[in-house]
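User: Structure please.
Assistant: Input sequence and predicted structure:
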Amino acid sequence: FARPGQERAYRYSWKRQNFFDNVAEELAAVRGNLGMYDMSSFGKLRVEGPDAEAFLNHVCGAEMAVPAGRIVYTQFLNPRGGIEADVTVTRLSETAFLVVTPAATRLADETWLRRHLGERRAVITDVTAGEGVLAVMGPKARTLMQAVSPNDFSNDVNPFGTAQEIELGLGLARVHRVSYVGELGWEIYVSADMAAHAFETLREAGQGLGLKLCGMHMMDCARIEKGFRHFGHDITSEDHVLEAGLGFAVKTAKPDFIGRDAVLAKREAGLERRLVQFRLTDPEPLLYHNEPVLRDGQIVGHLSSGAYGHHLGGAIGLGYVPCKGESAEAVLASSYEIDVAGVRVAAEASLTPLYDPKAERVRQ
């Protein structure tokens, strides 16, 4: 967001762009205090019917037999183990689920679901336009939620990975306790006709807490610091779910889901590459994506994502590194550089998030 009096237009540059400091301020708010941003562009697909659970268990890598109110992070896999979609699925009731997709892949994800529905007794409905979504993130997120609603937002009632219906201002909302920025927070789903009221209610209550409005550049910076994958950049239909580091979201104990055989085969054969997180040791250069990755002086790949990690103090990125026959320890034992405009810059490599590796902040 532009400051008062600041030009509200991009001035593109391969160096620090005119919104660089704005992103730093917004990230500082989310990491250290309180920020809010709009995620209404999420795709929202309701899957309902007696066979909804069985159907979603067939197309999703994760387990869908969960209690109502549980949110599951999962992927749609193809028969090769590649990632066709990266979504969350919230169980709304015994027979109803909400699949939340990235804005850019809503139609593709809906098409994938319909293609595999078959004769199962379930209905898929696109409800994207019916709900707005506001994300409230940061250490003071719970304080703000308690200020606008009489509901309980404690870890006992609304732990990470759960949703609940609440009162908000003069209306109702459904809040999902998840985070794409790696902080305590809630995504607030509210009917489109009440979205403006919800926004004004949150903004007014947040004034005394230092609430800052944030944008997508901040979110991209935060998610790369946290090592979160982005569909279309870090994960695609050509990237195996295990090599993308998302094996934790795949439950092979359940039978007959799309991609299960490929996951088991890859576990047996071993990984041929790994998605690695990088941070430049020099705080000055910038990363965008597609910069060459050098391992022990040899180009082995390129960055799939890049941004400036304002909290980590340097440019950050994600990229795949070949590792056939190698352990994780061997991959990290190498020396890495990123080629930035023809200059090799030393980089720290990690297979766990450089920010909050134990994911403690989202569970505060």
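The chain has two domains: 1-226, 227-361.
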